[in-house]
Amino acid sequence: MRQIYLDYNASTPIAPEVIQAMKNSLEASSGNPSSSHWAGKPARAAVTRARGQVAALLGASPEEIVFTSGGSEANNHAIKGAFFALRRRGNHIITTRIEHPAVIQPCRFLETLGAEVTYLPVDGTGRVDPDDIRKAITGRTILISVMHANNEVGTIQPISEIARLARERKVLFHTDAAQTIGKIDTRVDELGVDLLSIAGHKFQAPKGVGALYVRQGVALESLIHGAGHEAGRRAGTENVLLDVGLGAACELAQARLGRMAEVQQLRNLFWARLLELFGDQVVLNGHAEHRLPNTLNVSFVGKVGAEILAQLPEVAASTGSACHDGAVELSPVLRAMEIPPNVGMGAIRFSLGVGTTSDEIEWVVDRLKEAIARTSRNQP
Fold first, then answer.
1. 275, 312, 316, 323: which one is catalytic?
2. Which domain holds residue 243?
3. Dihedral of alpha carbons 141, 142, 144, 145, sign
4. Given 4, 53, 102, 121, which residue has the most CB atoms within 10 angstroms?
């Protein structure tokens, strides 16, 4: 059976260059990076190099990079760390209704500890209005957290504009950049953020590793307490192997950023072919322009996305709705965008990568035509 992977927003294959860097690390770095003797020095040097590679991709200083177990930990550290460090100054957090659960759930948890959280709406394309953020800021606001781009529909948020508002009001600004690393520019000074989360497996690094950028001068409470690893910001012996993998992936992402234009061309070809075949029976979800170059979230009107994908076992993609006991439930993102149920239930996210080919796109389009025809015949 042919297998076509169009779920790069969910996870990515580990790049051969990353695997090789990790193999080299296994052979050369057997000691504890915190040890000062001969066995620890190679391990420490490997972590130091990896930290520099992550920093270079973000345009940051190596001292501003904290290695984590992934994007979820980075988000939790940013949000909880800011709250516990600043709660004497205020308790108000601003975020949006379309954030990843790794942002929403920490906010919900902090509400049980006295935090006040404003969950702002988005428009029909999935974009938050910076003016809504401006109006939501109070004298007790300590943190704003808005994702760089949405994982489902790919909509890119006006991060630089929000950052200016936060800076004017002296409020910390965090962005979850898990979906944007390696796809669009993520240099922290251009974005203007104080905190930025990344997840390695979204850009060809291993699963289980990520990083949190912490702008110099920003103090956070540690999420994991213990010894003084990561400059005292995250306890636990450094995971040399995964840190090296993340560093190598960041270096590769920087080198390949220009190739995303080719991926965008394939995505546009995909959308054009769908429009040719289905006309007004297929709808784009997300912003037409401010969107990740690899992401195509479409709804087949009046259909159920899961039923369509069930007809395409060869294709790895994601749906925007879930079926429970015969009922279709839209994702929180599509609900926040106020997508009509008869449209949202037919949502499918196709996310492309540098390995995607035009032949694969044409093959999927042909199979989609057949799948839609079959589901139409099966409907009463």
1. 323
2. 16-256
3. negative
4. 53
What are the beta bridge partners of residue 322? 329
113/242 same-domain check: yes
Q: Report which residue type is found at 9.
A: N
How does DSSP classify residue 279? Answer: G
| Among 143, 185, 140, 187, residue whose Cα is nearest residue 162 | 143
Radius of gyration of the chain (CA): 22
Alpha carbon distances (Å) from 11 to 162, 179, 211:
28, 10, 16
Angle at the Cα of 190 from the Cα atoms of 186 and 196, rounded to 5 degrees: 50
Give, rounded to a whole angstrom, the gap between the first and last alpha carbons of the chain.
Answer: 31
Distance CA 181, CA 320 (A): 23
Alpha carbon 184 to chain centroid distance? 12
Alpha helices in the chain (DSSP H): 16-28, 40-58, 71-86, 101-111, 130-136, 159-168, 188-191, 229-232, 240-256, 260-278, 305-310, 332-336, 341-344, 358-378
Rounded distance between C-alpha atoms, residue 45 and residue 283, angstroms? 51
Name residue 286's amino acid.
G
Which range is least confidently modeled, 31-40, 140-149, 258-267, 335-344?
31-40
Judge whether 107 counts as a catalytic residue.
no
- Global confidence as pTM: 0.95
pLDDT digits (tens, 9 = 90+) for 158-198: 999 999 999 999 999 999 999 999 999 999 999 999 999 99
Domain co-membership, 241 together with 297: no
Residue 374 and residue 232 share a domain: no
| 310 alpha-carbon distance from chain centroid | 26
Rounded Cα distance, 188 and 190, in Å = 5
